[in-house]
Amino acid sequence: MKPLRKADLMAGDDSSGPEEARAAAHSQEGGSGAHDSAAALARSVLILANPASGGYRPRLLQDIAARLEARGCTVTIRLTRRAGEIGEICADPALRTGILAVAGGDGSVNEAIRGFQQNTAAAAPELAVIPCGTANVLAAELKLPRSAEGIARMMLQRRSVPLHYGLANGRPFVLMASAGFDAEVVHAVPLALKRRLGKLAYVLTALDIAFSRHGEDLFVRIGDEPENGDHAGRTLTCRLAVVTKARHYGGPFVICPDGGVTRPGLHLLALEKDTPLAALRFGLALLTGRLHKTKGVTLVPVNSLTLTSRRAVPAQIDGDPFGVTPLTLTDGNRPLALLVG
């Protein structure tokens, strides 16, 4: 119902008394106030950033805020003080903002989505990503802008896509979950080294543990659901299993040409061997975009699967440690609106 105008009141039935007129005026004011409130909410932007992260860029955030405020937006920059705070903010049913922008990497985005998953409010704000992390795979996946001008324009244009995520033991992952050698590296890389060297820290850690580790077999069982198609009920054994939503791995490297975070479904990438020689061969194939075509690699579309092992094997999601096997992995069913350029 549209709000009443003053002209509507003046042209009303002569039989309307003072009480009716006051009620109509109250309806007008309430409707106008609600409209103004909704418009103000739509123009509000909350930027969450971790000042302790290696990619923290305060001048970039201030530049984005200034550009948005010049176009009539209300911007709040909130610096987190502890791990998990982004998730707590996003899980709060009282959260009131039109856009929630996460300034960080893939792990920070994962934390935000975990919070939204727990939020009982009817609708979540639109999500924006300001790439400030180590790998920023999601930004590469969706070709998100990285300049202040481009990021501000993205928020003003409000063009969104559905962000479909997966679930690992019930916890969301935006890009991928894995168990095996790459997860061991994620568990082992020192945080200080990661902040100082970025991606190189993972390479050095991988070289450090490659010749001393003892890999374990992983047992994969794809679910029986019809959504798994011809692969329903299939089992296989491997040494590294990556369950991915995304096309890319570690930045610009393609591991799954048919992957995509804006549509439902998962893909399983399974590597039969994890010896140093096999790791070198697979690494070179990854650099050339041919990993999925390499002998000893299986790539299949899935909707659900389980990963088990005789002994606990480290796992990771979106580049952060995630305990050990066993894992139950499924596709999520509550996509979020993500702003894109």
TrEMBL record:
Every copy of the DAGKc domain together lies at 40-172
GO MF term list? ATP binding; kinase activity
On the tree of life, the source organism's domain of life is Bacteria
Instruction: Give UniProt keywords alphabetically.
Output: ATP-binding, Kinase, Nucleotide-binding, Transferase
GO annotation, cellular component aspect: plasma membrane
Q: Cross-referenced InterPro entries, in alphabetical order?
A: ATP-NAD_kinase_N (IPR017438), Diacylglycerol_kinase_cat_dom (IPR001206), Lipid_Phosphate_FormReg (IPR050187), NAD/diacylglycerol_kinase_sf (IPR016064), YegS/DAGK_C (IPR045540)
- Which parts of this chain are annotated as the region Disordered? 1-34
PROSITE patterns cross-referenced by the UniProt entry: DAGK
* A UniProt-annotated Pfam family: DAGK_cat
| SMART domains named in the record | DAGKc (SM00046)
- The name on file for this protein is Sphingosine kinase
Organism of derivation = Pannonibacter phragmitetus
